[in-house]
Structures are given as structure tokens and as C-alpha cells.
Amino acid sequence: MTVVLVAGATGSLGSLIVKNLLERGATVRALVRPSSADGGTRLRDVAGHPRLSLRVGDLTDGAAALAPHLESVEVVVSAVQGGPEVIIDGQTELLRAAERAGVHRMIPSDFSINLWGYGYGVNILSDLRRTFAEAFRTSPVARTSVAIGAFPEYFLGPFHEVLDPAAGTFSIWGDGTRKIDITTIPDAAAFTAAIALDPMTAGRDVHVVGRQLSLLELRNEVEAATGRRWALVRKGSLDDLQTEIVRRQFAATNPFAYVALQYQTGMYGGSASLTDVRNADYPDVVPASVAEYLAGPGAAHFAVPESAVDRDDWPATV
Ligand SMILES: NC(=O)c1ccc[n+]([C@@H]2O[C@H](COP(=O)([O-])OP(=O)(O)OC[C@H]3O[C@@H](n4cnc5c(N)ncnc54)[C@H](OP(=O)(O)O)[C@@H]3O)[C@@H](O)[C@H]2O)c1
Q1: CATH number for the domain whose boundaries are 155-162+167-178+211-304
Q2: Does the beta carbon of 11 sit less than 6 angstroms from any atom of ligand 1?
Q3: Is the CB of 36 under 6 A from ligand 1?
Q4: Residue 14 Cα to ligand 1 middle (Å)
Q5: Can you list the alpha helix ranges (DSSP code H) found in 197-237?
Q6: What is the pLDDT of residues 262-308, one digit of tens each?
Q7: Which UniProt keywords apply (predicted)?
């Protein structure tokens, strides 16, 4: 029985990786921070599972403190989220601890577009992940990276500025015809568990995907799911997108003002597209269609946020 340690186990992706690993028969150690020492709400339904143990630790504790959690572990899966102190420094401590414990493989917290289709400086969050990938060059622990494209949970949320439920608009850069890669968080977790337990993935970037469809096809899916029209806003060409990124970089105090557009430039221009998609290697993972997602949890994207409701329009009495 494979022993897997999952860091970021209380997160939206990490908690589902834990559940999928348990379903696949693995023994799972969930690394949780002291503030979520009981596993938090996301692990509640697997609490007490006979093959799950919680290990309390923070990546900032350092390799020596983390190493005991990794004894007898074969695979580490990291689904942590954060800035360079987590993605580079924290994961490097986890990798050093894995080396001490003789771990075979580690899946770093990438779960992104194709990180290798473009250079440094194009996407600040990809740069963190590529910088950490370099730590494996001299490590006996093999890196397995999982690339899934974009989570619709984020791509259709406010962060990406594609869908605006208050305005009833669907915005695109470019002509909207290039296929983009979309994978839901539950499907990414199901693939990741399967890949974690597949020793043939050592040293590889594994590309898996829920659906590949163009922005215009995605808008059709949104219209079919809602039964209404979403006005298409053509924001400009891909060159205009590049100009907008630079404009925001000068104006912004926070990189989150432009990083979503950095993802989009790779997705819409094709440099970040997944290549050699390996879904066929994991036939028991059957990803949801975008239509199924939009009819289920994705329906939440269509709700007009409270902040956008004009209270003057509300009736005085009901
Ligand atoms: N492709 C896409 O469209 C897309 C979109 C979003 C995210 N992602 C990627 O998916 C991955 C997971 O994201 P997520 O949304 O699941 O993140 P999340 O829900 O914010 O969860 C992050 C997890 O990391 C843990 N963590 C943070 N700092 C830590 C530290 N110093 N030590 C130990 N644990 C730490 C958190 O613990 P606490 O619960 O204690 O805070 C939490 O369990 C990330 O790599 C992210 O970039 C991809």
C-alpha cells in the first residue's frame, strides 16, 4: 500500500486529493498547519478514516522538523498555495525533508497551464513554480508535475474578468477561436491521485485535461446553461492584451491586478496550451463536461454579487 503525504491538505484542491487517494487505497498523511490541526472543515468527512493520519506542521518549520512526517513515505503531493516564501522556500524545505527520508517522488504545487511553453518574466506565478522545479535537478527525489490548464472555478470567477454576471457580459481577448484547457478542481484532484500512484510518471510533466474548448464555445456553454444571452465583449487583440498587462504592471501595487491576464496571454496565444495530453493513461478518471459543471457547482458563477445590486432599484415593500 503506497504511503503518500499531502501538503496543503486543508485546501480546496489538496483536500480532494486526500479523498481520492484514500478511495484508491493509499495510506495518506495529511500535513495540516497548527491552525487547522483537526483537519478543518474540508477533511471532516474523511476524519477517522483508518488509512488517514493528520500530521501537524508548516513548511516554514524547515526540513529537519518536517522530515519525521516523511518517514516511510513514497510520494509527496504538495497542493500548497502562496507566494515565493511558500512555493519556493517552503516547498524547498519539504523537498529537503523528502530527500532525508528517502522519498521517491514529489508532485509540486503546479496544477497550472503548460509552464514550459514560454520564458521567465511572462507570468509571475509560473516563474515561482519553474524556479522551484530547478531544485529537482540535483535531487534524488523525482519530480512529477501535473498540468491541467485553468480551473473553471477561477477562470469564470471575478479574478479572470471573463464572466460578469452583473453586466451580463462575456469578455474575450483575441478572436476567441483557439482551444483552451479547462479542468475542474475535483477532476484535477482525481487525476492527481491517479498520477501520484503511477510510478511511470517519475521525472515527467503529465498533462491531463477536463475539456478543451474555445472561448466562443465556452460562451455557448454558458448561454446553454443559463438559457440567456451573454453579450460578447471583444476587448482587443492579443497585442492589445499584452499592452494592457504592461499598463497594469506600471499602475498596480499588487500583482493580482495583472496576473490573470498573464495566464490568459499564454492560453489565448497557445504558448501555455497543454501538449501530449495523457487522459488515456487514466481511463477511470472521467472528467465532467463544462455543461455538467455549469449545471452543478458552476451555476454559482451566474449569481449577481450582492455588491453589484443597486439597492435603489429594490421595492420599498415586498
Ligand atoms: N490552474 C488554475 O486555474 C488554478 C487556480 C487556482 C489555484 N491553482 C493551483 O492549485 C494549487 C492549490 O490551490 P488551492 O486553490 O487548493 O489553494 P488553497 O485552497 O488556498 O489551499 C492552500 C493550502 O496550502 C496550505 N498552506 C499554505 N501555506 C502553507 C505553509 N506554509 N505550510 C503548510 N501548508 C500551507 C493551506 O493551509 P491552511 O488551510 O492552514 O491555510 C491550504 O491547505 C496551487 O498550486 C494553486 O496555484 C490553480
Answers
A1: 3.90.25
A2: yes
A3: yes
A4: 7
A5: 215-226
A6: 999 999 999 999 999 999 999 999 999 999 999 999 999 999 877 76
A7: NADP, Oxidoreductase
Domain ranges of the chain: 3-149+184-207, 155-162+167-178+211-304
Q: Say which DSSP state 44 is in.
A: G
What span, in angstroms and rounded, lies between the C-alpha atoms of 219 and 214?
Answer: 9
CATH code assigned to 3-149+184-207: 3.40.50.720
Nearest CA to ligand 1 atom 9: 111
Average pLDDT estimate for 53-65: 97
Sign of the CA dihedral running 276, 3, 15, 295:
positive
pLDDT beyond 50 at 316: no
For residue 151, the ligand 1 atom closest to its alpha carbon is: 3
pLDDT tens, position by position, 68-112? 999 999 999 999 999 999 999 999 999 999 999 999 999 999 999
Instruction: Look over the chain and give the mean of its residue pLDDT values, rounded to a whole number.
Output: 95
- Residue to substitute in 12, 13, 115 for testing ligand 1 pocket (most ligand atoms within 8 angstroms of CB): 13
Task: State residue 205 phi and psi, 5-degree precision.
Answer: -95, 115
Q: Is 151 in the pocket of ligand 1 (CB under 6 A)?
A: yes
Q: What is the Å distance from ligand 1's center to 227 Cα?
A: 34
